[in-house]
Amino acid sequence: MTLETNLFQEIQSVVTAFEFESVTVERKAVLQPLIDFIQEKYTSHEEIRLNLICTHNSRRSHLSQVWAQTAAAYYGIKNVFCYSGGTEATALFPKVAETLKHSGFRIQVIADGNNPVYAIKFSENTPPVIGFSKTYDDAFNPESGFAAIMTCSQADGGCPFVAGAEKRIPITFEDPKAFDNTPEQAEKYQERSLQIATEMFYLFSQIK
To answer: Rounded distance, CA 66 to CA 69, Å?
Structure first.
């Protein structure tokens, strides 16, 4: 497979260190329905719309959105559009932006306030991912023909029906919020970010 997007060197170094063997058999089984959805759309030359959903659209859904979009570009999978949303809107948690920056993403705040808007770039000549907190059915997100990917168990349980979703796929992650205001905070956010990144790169690596 031809790798088509040159990531920023710092991100490239992070990606090179990924070990897909660390993705357990159980996790691979959880990820398989999403691989199948992407493969089916890719084979049919259709747009691949992924809406990553978590309760507050503040942590895991943003990490998933950014890493999924980066992985799609890295593997040259065209027409992938990654979004994120919550069952309620809050704000992208600043530690998430800091964690992504630590992995080499270039981040610019393009609007301040209670719910800042971030431009998150992984490559020189690729449009940035726009990150801000919103509900999953916000006008910014697709209305139909997308996979609703539930990244937290609360959203999965509390959101039994996602209007417009063609498929609903739970791939839940532990919440790094549990470590906020503790000495382990930075380490745990980085750990969760790299787990999500490894799994997103693994699943896009499977698309043929």
So the answer is: 5
- Tell the residue number behind the tokens 């959805």, with chain if given: 37
pLDDT tens profile 55-76? 999 999 999 999 999 999 999 9
How far apart are alpha carbons 199 and 186 in whole angstroms?
A: 20
Cβ partners under 8 Å of residue 5, min gap 6: 73, 74, 76, 122, 123, 126
Q: What is the DSSP string of 87-140?
A: SS-----HHHHHHHHHTT-EEEEEE-SSS-EEEEESSTTSPPEEE---BTTSTT
Instruction: Give me the residue label for tokens 């809050």.
Output: 90
Residue 57 tokens, joined = 């659209």
Task: Return the amino acid letter for 147.
Answer: A
Distance separating alpha carbons of residues 96 and 79, to the nearest angstrom = 26
Order the strands of the 48-54 sheet from edge to edge: 80-86, 48-54, 146-150, 165-170
Phi and psi at 70, nearest 5°, equal: -65, -45
Question: Is 79:47 a contact under the CB 8 Å cutoff?
Answer: yes
Report residue 155's pLDDT band, with 50, 70 and 90 as the boundaries.
low
Q: How many CB atoms lie within 10 A of CB 2?
A: 5
